[in-house]
Amino acid sequence: MSPEIHKKLFSMPDSSVHVDLASQTITLADGTKAEFHVDGFSKQCLLEGVDELGFILKNNDAIAAYEAKRFSTLNTLEG
C-alpha cells in the first residue's frame, strides 16, 4: 500500500477494515479503497486454507508420479 494509505490506516486504530484477498483490496471505514500485493503462492494457500505442507499433501499424487518417473531415469552409478 502507498505510504498515504498506510498512514491513514494507522490513524484510525478503532475503525473496521474490510480485506478482500481475492481482489487484493482493502477498504477503510471511510470508504477509501487500496490495492495490496500478495505473492501468488501465499494468496492461493490463504484462499484454500492450507499452509505449505497442506499444499504439498494436496499435490501428493502428482508428486509421487513425478518421483516414480524420475527414479527410473536416475543413474547413481555413473558420475
Give structural attributes.
3-stranded antiparallel β-sheet; elongated; mainly alpha; single chain; 79 residues
Radius of gyration: 21 Å
In which range does the helix fraction lie?
A: 40-55%
Low-confidence blocks of residues: none
Global outline = elongated
Mean pLDDT level: 88
Distance from N terminus to C terminus (CA atoms, Å) equals: 51 Å
Q: Strand arrangement, largest sheet?
A: 1-2-3
Tell me about the largest β-sheet. Answer: 3 strands, antiparallel
Indicate the multimeric state: single chain
The beta-strand count equals: 3
| H-E order | HEEEHHH
Structural class, by secondary structure, is mainly alpha
Characterise the protein shown here.
Helix content is 48%, strand content 11%. It has 79 residues and is mostly helical. It is built from four helices and three strands. The longest helix is centred in the C-terminal third of the chain and has 14 residues, at 60-73. The protein is elongated. It has helices at residues 3-10, 40-48, 52-58, 60-73, and strands at residues 18-20, 25-27, 33-35. It has a domain at 1-37. The N and C termini lie far apart (51 Å). The chain has a three-stranded antiparallel beta sheet with strand order 1-2-3, with no helix packed on it.
Quick overview of this protein structure:
This protein has 79 residues and is mostly helical.
List the SSEs and their pairings:
Blueprint: H1 3-10, E1 18-20, E2 25-27, E3 33-35, H2 40-48, H3 52-58, H4 60-73
